[in-house]
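Dear colleagues,

For the upcoming journal club I promised to circulate an example of a predicted protein-ligand complex. I picked one with manganese (II) ion because it came up in last month's discussion. The inputs are reproduced below in full, followed by the predicted structure.
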Amino acid sequence: MNDINILCSLNDAYVNPMLVMLNSMQKHNQEKKTLFVFSTSLSEESEKRIRDFLSDKNFEVNIYRLEFKDLCKYKILSNDIFLRIFAFHYLPKEIDKVLYLDADAVFLNDVRKIYDTNLDGKLMACVMDIGAGNLLLDNYFKKLKINHQYFNAGMLLMNLKEIRKRWNAEKVMAYIEENNEKFRFQDQDVLNTLCKAEDLVFLERNCNYQIKKANKIKDIDKIVFLHFLSRPKPWMHCHLNKKEELFWKDWEREDLFHKMTKEEKKNIKKK
Ligand SMILES: [Mn+2]
C-alpha cells in the first residue's frame, strides 16, 4: 500500500482549523502520513504549533515557505490560495500522488476512501461544487470554456506524475498572470480551466460534502470529508448549530481554540 501524502496551503489564520482537520483524519486512520504545508507567510510560531501538535501523531511534517519568485515576473501573486496549483512543481519528484485539503473541514470517515481512488491516466479526482450547478449556464463559465461539471477545489486528489508530464509551471503561471483579472473564483477557476473532462475522476458527494449554513446534512455516517463553505466558519463561533458541533467534537486540545462555556453557548442560542 502506498503512503498517504497530504497537502495544505494556508496562512497563520488557518493553522488551528487545519490541526482540527488533521486530528479528525488521524482518528479514522492511524497510518503514517506525510504532510506538506505550503505558505507564503507562515510565522515561526505557527510552524512550531503545527510541529508540536502533530508530534505525538503519525505525521511527518514538511513546511514549504514559497514566494513564486522562480515563476512569477511581476509578483502579482502573493496569495497562498494559488500555491496548491503548483504542487506538481514544488513537491519532491518522487511524490507521485498527493491529497490537497482545505482546512475548513473535518473527516468523519477513513481518508483511504478518497486516497485509494484509481487515477491511471487522469490528472485529479474531485467533487462537483454545490454552488456551481446553475452557474454553468452563466456566460462567465462559457467564456472560461469548461467542458465538465465545475468542481470544488477544497479537496483534490492529484496525480502528480501525470500532471508533470502535461503541465509546465512557467506556462501555468503566465496563464494566471494574463487572466488574473477575469477569474471570479481564483485558483478554483484556474484548476477548472486547466483540466478537461477526460482528465478528471468525479467522486461522490460524500468525499467533499460541502455545506452552507442552511443546508441539512443527509446520511452523515457515509460522509468522508465534511467541508464548511460559508462564513462565519465554525471556529469563529459566533453561532452554534448541529453542524458546527461536528467540528467542535473533533477538537482535542484545550489550547487550539477558546472553548465555549455552557453560559456562552446559552447566550449565543438566545440571540
Ligand atoms: Mn474551503
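Two points we might discuss: The chain has one domain: 4-233. The chain has ten helices and ten strands.

See you all on Thursday,
B. R.
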